[in-house]
Design brief:
By secondary structure, the chain is α/β, with parallel strands linked by helices. Helices cover 39% and strands 15% of the residues. It has a five-stranded parallel beta sheet with strand order 7-6-5-8-9, covered by helices on one side. Strands 2-1-3-4 form a four-stranded parallel beta sheet, sandwiched between helices. The radius of gyration is 19 Å and the shape is globular. Bound molecules: N-carbamoyl-L-aspartate. The site of N-carbamoyl-L-aspartate has 12 residues, from helix 3 and helix 7.
Length: 321
């Protein structure tokens, strides 16, 4: 057995999340996060050497909402680990859901056919509902405006890899903080691993970070500022988000807010040289493409880290020791 595969097996012997659902970042302890990060790092360095660790396992990707990165990175992750995939992604209209089947029956059925179900659904709480009905682990790939835990892990691991987290950090979260499930999960997760930070929540009044999330930062003794104005000089991390068009009943309101922020090449001059610019993607107009070649832009690194994070999560949940 080669070195990295041995290392991955060693990590999986020390700790595990076997058969656990992944619904919210709130369910994880510091030791789980450290375990997942070491697994992520080993997978990242493995150059495909873990290609058969999940052979004979099958993952269903059940997506009731559009997705490019999350669905394809889960499918890529499972394929790279040697497992099989039942993809119900853009084909949801061809499944029995279109005949009126409810989520519970769909989950029970897919649990008879696969070992893990990755679920994206427009309703908050749907992942928990699925987990309550399921005999196989459910991985929440986004439940409405609720949470997106696997994105939060990949965001956190990108921060670990790109930023010196021993120094005090100012993390600016920018855009649609009301509907953005990625920022909801990420604030909760960061609060678990660091105290030496300050959040700056930058949004128009209508798209403010919900109070329950702010309450979690407060409970951890983490300071925050709420402002509509984006200051480029002090943040160490810019986490930019898209205004979530699909969450607006009134599209006129969306049109009014959609261009609230746009980072351009000129703004880079005011940022710290060590800062990083993150985005869960897809972007609409929040970051001009001329920013992409700057060394501080890490959003496509996030995509690659998403693959390794999801490989680590699938191994953690499915790998028999
Ligand atoms: C995010 C999502 O679906 O919440 N996308 C993703 O999974 N990378 C962000 C978004 O859609 O704006």
């Amino acid at each position: 057995m080669n070195k990295t595969k041995k290392e991955i097996k060693k990590i999986l012997k020390r700790h595990s999340l076997i058969d656990r659902d992944i619904i919210s970042v709130s369910q994880f302890e510091q030791s789980d996060i450290e375990f997942l990060y070491s697994l992520f790092t080993a997978v990242k360095e493995s150059n495909g050497e873990c290609s058969r660790l999940l052979r004979h396992k099958v993952m269903t990707a059940l997506f009731y909402e559009p997705s490019t990165r999350t669905s394809s990175s889960f499918i890529s992750a499972m394929t790279r680990l040697g497992g099989g995939v039942i993809p119900i992604t853009e084909g949801i209209q061809y499944s029995s859901v279109s005949k009126g089947e409810d989520l519970r029956d769909t989950i029970i059925t897919l649990g008879c056919l696969s070992d893990v179900i990755v679920l994206r659904h427009p309703e908050v709480g749907s992942a928990q509902l699925a987990a309550d009905a399921s005999v196989v682990p459910i991985i929440n790939a986004g439940d409405g405006i609720g949470e997106h835990p696997t994105q939060a892990f990949l965001d956190l691991f990108t921060i670990f890899d790109e930023v010196d987290i021993t120094k005090p950090l100012n993390i600016a979260m920018v855009g649609d903080l009301k509907h953005g499930r990625t920022v909801h999960s990420l604030v909760k997760l960061i609060c678990k691993v660091s105290r030496n930070i300050k959040f700056t929540f930058v949004s128009p009044e209508e798209l403010k970070m919900p109070n329950d999330i702010i309450g979690i930062a407060n409970a951890h003794g983490i300071g925050h500022e709420i402002t509509p104005k984006l200051d480029f000089t002090s943040p160490d991390i810019f986490y930019i988000t898209r205004v979530q068009k699909e969450r607006f009943k009134d599209q006129k309101k969306y049109l009014k807010l959609k261009d609230a922020y746009c980072i351009t090449k000129d703004d880079l001059e005011h940022m710290k040289d060590t800062a990083i610019i993150m985005h869960p993607l897809p972007r609409v107009d929040e970051i001009h493409t001329s920013v992409d070649s700057d060394h501080r832009a890490v959003y496509f690194k996030q995509v690659r880290n998403g693959l390794y994070t999801r490989m680590a999560l699938l191994l953690a949940v499915l790998h028999n020791r």
